[in-house]
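Dear Dr. L.,

I hope this message finds you well. Following up on our conversation about the binding site, I have prepared a predicted three-dimensional model of the protein together with erythose-4-phosphate. For your records, I am including the exact sequence and ligand specification that went into the calculation, followed by the structure tokens. Please feel free to forward this to your student if that is useful.
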Amino acid sequence: MKIFLDTANIEEIKEAVSWGIVRGVTTNPTLMNRAKADYATSIKEICEIVKGPVSAEVLAQDSEGMVKEAQKLSEIDKHVNVKIPISIEGLKAIKELSALGIKTNCTLIFSANQALLAASAGATYVSPFIGRLDDTGNDGMEVVADIVQILENYDFKTEVIAASIRHPMHVLEAAMLGADIATVPFAVLQKMVQHPLTDRGIKLFLEDAKKAGLKI
Ligand code: E4P
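The resulting structure of the complex is given below.
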């Protein structure tokens, strides 16, 4: 499973990219607002750091407006894919953008049927929002499992991005289910590295190295 970073924060992106594990980045208007940066400039900068798929979301609600905005966003860098919220207008836009060769990430997916429709319209990625489903008493991971199964059954090329990740178990479960990608907030990525037994093990080895007088 590929790891994308779910942020528009340049410092976080630079840091996580230096770990050698980031294959792409997803942004949304909320994350852009947190980063307090100019939209196009920020997307360009992220593309230069990551050199992999970067999602930027449209704001228009009608298909014509979405296509226009998507064309503008995709001109920023060849790595940009355009986030289109699932809706009838969104499906029309995905169909057109797919014909134009512009990659799309169908976002705000909360059911397997929504993902099936987005994939059928030609979406490059579908993003089920796990955490937000869990928050409302639903099982976000069940939706991911259904989507992975359906796309596999019918050999869709569309990739599944497990999104709205809240903790390391979400990443682990998405990986076990066969999601193609998990887009992970920086804080969750930091938690994934940590284990108390690793810290204890390092401390013990260093103490023993000192006792043995080891030098390299
Ligand atoms: C990513 O594509 C989504 O926009 C993001 O994961 C949403 O996460 P949230 O539910 O924590 O806002």
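In brief: The first helix runs from residue 10 to 18.

With kind regards,
A. P.
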